[in-house]
Amino acid sequence: MKKLTRKEEELMKILWKLERAFVKEIIEKYPDPKPHYNTISSLVRLLQEKGVVGFKQYGNTYQYFPLISKEEYRRSFMSQIVTDYFDNSYKSAVAFFVKEKGLSDNEIDELVRLIKEQK
User: Fold this and answer.
1) Neighbours of 80 (CB within 10 A)
2) Mean pLDDT, range 89-109, rounded to an integer
3) Taking the CB of the first residue and of the last residue of the chain, which one, N or C, has fewer CB atoms within 10 A?
4) How many CB atoms lie within 10 A of CB 53?
């Protein structure tokens, strides 16, 4: 799966929440100042080309919906991050976040518990 741009991710987050929406409904969920209709329409078409958004046509208008779940995208995105920035080492990625975010002992214990549950 191709990496989405920040603007594409922002639109997908809205579409994941709405599940199905017309461009006007998507625009309504953006904070002010709202993007222009043509901007969102173009962005949705780019997402269609990337294979992450589908549509159903109603006359001259289109209702859009995600073709991938938020979880599928997260999995792909995180896998790419680990590959690109942590030499494909999940251990290094977890260690980075533990150190960088200054996790509490309770949070670290919870991580260890979650890891052990996966075995």
Assistant:
1) 13
2) 85
3) C
4) 21
pLDDT of residue 105: 85
**Residue (of 56, 64, 79) closest to 17 by Cα position:** 64
Give the closest residue to 15 by CA, choosing from 23, 4, 89, 109: 23
**Are β-strands 21-22 and 61-66 bridged in parallel, bridged antiparallel, or unpaired?**
antiparallel
pTM: 0.78
pLDDT value at 1 more than 90 = no
- Express as a percent the part of the chain with pLDDT over 70: 99
The structural domains of the chain, ordered by start, are 6-66 (1.10.10.10), 70-117 (no CATH)
Report pLDDT for 112: 86
Cβ-Cβ contacts under 8 Å for 13 (sequence gap 6 or more): 70
Measured distance CA(57)–CA(24) in Å, rounded: 15
